[in-house]
Amino acid sequence: MMNDEFLLTPLEICLTHNYKDRMVAFLKAHPVCWEEAIKLAVSNKQPYSWRAAWLLWSCIEKNDTRIQPHIQSLIEGLTNKKDGHQREILKILFLMELSEEQESTLFDFCIQLWKDIQKKSSIRHIAFRFLQNMVEKYPELKHELEFYSDKIYLESLSPGIRQSIIKIIKTS
Question: CB neighbours of 105 closer than 8 A, spacing ≥ 6?
Answer without folding.
Answer: 75
